[in-house]
Design the sequence.
């Protein structure tokens, strides 16, 4: 669906069902340079199993208009505005990579509206190599290649795909190349408030990590889990692009977490 | 540059799309000779049917062996996804069918494979889809042919059988200026010689029956989604950007973005038309792909030697190949095909049609048959076979003359190809003499 957020047309993927504010809402937040499509194989399950799905494209990304947001704090505030615009009250926030940082910033603003937070392939801080940011500024396509080569685990580098016939690296490359990757990476790099935000979360939380993650290395994710006081769930054989690389295992982790909350 | 793998092409050809499976560690890609797949549970089945998860349901739609071939071809061409089909013709059909509906229009190169001409000119017309044929390297003609209802521009990267190279960057620019994608049949080129997506093509189709399979043992096709075309911005593609009722109103563009076309073909054409590739054919074609790059180099090397040799022969009236200076598309060939513009060539023998027939009948190594891209050398007289349904004017527009002999140069030892053609030319010369005496 398209909604207006701060006067800009904004795309929210709803998993193929009409958005219904009366159902529990799962908010799926994409990572740097990506869009709602990284959740393609989770969103539909939630939408067809009793949840409403709210998976936005950030401003200036893919189907959403507007200038890209330059800080994680702005992204958190923007998410609150987007949820308000859609009339959403209670939310389960699930963020991949940068999407989790955004959830951390939105959480205190949303207060008791947050039912739970889930972190996938991420950490409390995501420092980015300055050379990658510079490359992204000069040539997004080249930076996307660097990220995807680094970001997908070994099986996907060998052309495996959970959707028969598709090439997820190729799909990611097209999406990232057309999105404001440099702005996202800079926002991640400049963000330092994650650990403090994480330690003040009071709702149920869960952390899911990928053993081949080279973008947000697993040891950083394990530190985050420690800060949050939870035992991280580790998915073997996947790289950083967890929701795309291990969609079924990611979904199972998301399902079992959300179902324990009932 | 649009890519979908960071492995080298030789590695992709051998490995992409498959890692040894966990049950038995089979190093070769197994043949999943099965029609159907057991669901874990009722929930699992409904998730698969509702595209909530990826996986296999029924081999008309997807099959694990076919999927390896699809992913390997997508990686080789640098596309976002691929759909394999029962033949090259069905790959073309599902592409046109997925982008066009009744009342729509296609702009196509005039010099293309005969059955594709028939498909565009007669078959699709019965369903209300019109086609305008243009000299594809004439930018004004291409631009003028694009109408409000045009859904795609189509060409072959090397035209069959006229051997004209399409100036892909120029044609892509014109198509894109009009909000229309460029669909390229790259059968004669293979990704070893030219990757059309790098030059602006939006969809690449192959008859994998030909060089990609390479051994003349299996018919097959593939559609590769380039993933770069913005179907929504174009405003011309309701099949991709509006809800599709049979899948709970799925919007392919919103849901899949860069793989929207591939997913539409999967969900609609493979289900409703069912021109599926068999797992066994996929396996045979995978054996071919493994050596594609090695074979193509030998094809090219032999073609270059044969061209040079034919040009020196008295019995030969003319020789055509895109790399030759008199070929009108030679500059495009030099730009797009640095390794050489394919292993198809054509030539005319002195003495016309009858001498041509004498040439073909005298060959032993080379096979007279209606195929191209076998590892063996093949010859054919198009005017009396593949293009026999075309009238004189259409033949001319398709770049064919009555004396034309089409050669698909194989990878045999060159000395033996030369000896075989030598015998053929002697028979042709004899026939030419006889004809001259009669006259
Ligand atoms: C350029 C081209 N495209 C498509 C086809 C059709 O392929 P198939 O025979 O696999 O259906 C051919 C067959 O010769 C061809 O030469």
Sequence:
């Amino acid at each position: 669906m398209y909604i207006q957020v701060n006067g800009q047309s904004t795309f929210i993927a709803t998993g193929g069902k009409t958005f219904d504010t009366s159902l529990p809402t799962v908010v799926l937040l994409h990572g740097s340079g990506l869009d709602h499509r990284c959740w393609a194989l989770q969103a539909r399950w939630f939408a067809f199993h009793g949840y409403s799905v709210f998976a936005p494209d950030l401003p200036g990304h893919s189907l959403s208009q507007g200038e890209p947001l330059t800080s994680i704090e702005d992204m958190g505030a923007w998410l609150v505005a987007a949820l308000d615009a859609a009339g959403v009250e209670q939310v389960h926030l699930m963020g991949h990579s940068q999407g989790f940082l955004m959830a951390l910033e939105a959480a205190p603003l949303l207060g008791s509206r947050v039912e739970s937070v889930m972190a996938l392939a991420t950490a409390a801080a995501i420092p980015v190599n300055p050379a990658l940011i510079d490359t992204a500024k000069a040539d997004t396509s080249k930076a996307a290649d660097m990220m995807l080569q680094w970001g997908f685990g070994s099986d996907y580098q060998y052309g495996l795909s959970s959707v028969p016939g598709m090439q997820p690296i190729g799909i990611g490359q097209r999406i990232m190349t057309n999105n404001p990757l440099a702005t996202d990476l800079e926002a991640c790099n400049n963000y330092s408030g994650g650990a403090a935000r994480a330690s003040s979360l009071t709702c149920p939380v869960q952390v899911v990590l990928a053993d081949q993650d080279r973008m947000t290395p697993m040891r950083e994710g394990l530190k985050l889990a420690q800060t949050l006081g939870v035992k991280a769930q580790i998915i073997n054989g996947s790289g950083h692009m967890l929701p795309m690389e291990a969609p079924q295992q990611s979904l199972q982790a998301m399902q079992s977490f959300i179902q324990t909350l009932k | 540059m649009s890519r979908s793998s960071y492995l080298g092409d030789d590695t992709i050809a051998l490995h992409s799309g498959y890692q040894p499976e966990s049950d038995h560690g089979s190093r070769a890609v197994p043949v999943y000779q099965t029609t159907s797949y057991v669901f874990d549970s009722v929930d699992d089945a409904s998730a698969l049917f509702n595209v909530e998860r990826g996986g296999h349901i029924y081999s008309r739609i997807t099959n694990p062996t076919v999927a390896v071939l699809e992913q390997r071809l997508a990686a080789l061409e640098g596309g976002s996804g691929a759909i394999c089909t029962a033949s090259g013709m069905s790959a073309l059909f599902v592409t046109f069918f997925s982008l066009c509906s009744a009342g729509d229009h296609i702009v196509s190169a005039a010099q293309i494979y005969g059955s594709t001409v028939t498909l565009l000119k007669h078959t699709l017309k019965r369903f209300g889809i019109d086609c305008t044929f243009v000299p594809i390297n004439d930018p004004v003609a291409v631009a003028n042919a694009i109408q409000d209802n045009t859904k795609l521009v189509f060409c072959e990267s090397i035209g069959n059988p006229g051997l004209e190279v399409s100036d892909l960057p120029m044609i892509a620019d014109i198509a894109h200026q009009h909000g229309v994608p460029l669909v390229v049949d790259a059968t004669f080129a293979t990704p070893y010689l030219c990757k059309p997506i790098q030059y602006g093509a939006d969809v690449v189709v192959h008859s994998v029956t030909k060089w990609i399979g390479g051994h003349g043992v299996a018919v097959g096709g593939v559609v590769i989604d380039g993933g770069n075309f913005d179907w929504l911005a174009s405003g011309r593609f309701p099949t991709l950007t509006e809800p599709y009722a049979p899948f709970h109103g799925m919007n392919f563009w919103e849901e899949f973005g860069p793989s929207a076309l591939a997913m539409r073909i999967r969900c609609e054409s493979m289900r409703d038309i069912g021109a599926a590739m068999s797992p066994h054919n996929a396996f045979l074609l995978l054996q071919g792909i493994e050596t594609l790059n090695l074979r193509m180099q030998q094809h090219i090397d032999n073609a270059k030697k044969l061209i040079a040799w034919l040009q020196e022969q008295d019995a030969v009236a003319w020789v055509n190949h895109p790399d030759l200076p008199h070929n009108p598309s030679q500059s495009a060939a030099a730009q797009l095909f640095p390794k050489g513009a394919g292993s198809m060539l054509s030539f005319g023998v002195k003495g016309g049609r009858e001498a041509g027939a004498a040439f073909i009948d005298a060959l032993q190594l080379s096979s007279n048959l209606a195929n191209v891209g076998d590892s063996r050398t093949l010859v054919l007289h198009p005017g009396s076979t593949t293009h026999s349904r075309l009238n004189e004017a259409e033949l001319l527009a398709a770049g064919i003359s009555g004396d034309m002999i089409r050669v698909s140069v194989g990878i045999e030892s060159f000395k033996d190809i030369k000896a075989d053609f030598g015998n053929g030319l002697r028979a042709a010369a004899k026939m030419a003499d006889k004809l001259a005496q009669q006259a």
The longest strand of chain B covers residues 150-156. The mean pLDDT of chain B is 95.
